[in-house]
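Crash report, auto-generated. Payload:
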Amino acid sequence: EVQLLESGGGLVQPGGSLRLSCAASGFTFTSYAMTWVRQAPGKGLEWVSTISGSGGSTYYADSVKGRFTISRDNSKNTLYLQMNSLRAEDTAVYYCGRSVRYTSSSVGYFDYWGQGTLVTVSS
Amino acid sequence: EIVLTQSPGTLSLSPGERATLFCRASQSVSSSYLAWYQQKPGQAPRLLIYGASSRATGIPDRFSGSGSGTDFTLTISRLEPEDFAVYYCQQYGSSPPSTTFGQGTRLEIK
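Recovered output after restart:
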């Protein structure tokens, strides 16, 4: 059974940093790209970032480029999102998802999602 | 960036009725790379449809997707009580690699 479990969310001040983790199980982790998607309170879904199975390719939304870094540790079956220079508008539930891609240079759709972790940026 | 516009914003129907949800793209979606998700309050989204018309694993056949180019439709043939939720479309055919979601359609019990 595929499982994705996020952790690391919490309250952080504007300008601060936070690192999210997503522990994966039930599938061959290196065979899949992985993605972070966020959802602000009461709002819709927003793609944040995707990383290839090897970790060699990364893609970012313009809204987080230069501030967030996606990475993965394939020996630990874990996905990460390092978030720096956080802003109030980054407040959201952050979901990790397994990406199913049609080419090696695409983001794909997301067939499994974690339960999400809440990040609140506030003073 | 491809912008997806979903309509209606809210759809009020009764169990047993047919639901039709629309997703229009600002430019053609490559190779029908369009997905639909269902999200219930406090839960993560669930994949329903990918490739515009292929049902995901375990999705009942009352859910169907259609369309191509810029216009796509999600149809729920006969609503069950558990189908009342928010539905999102997503296009994943962008180059350079990125993806966008529609703003969602809320399906509520009439």
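Post-recovery validation: The radius of gyration of chain A is 13 Å.
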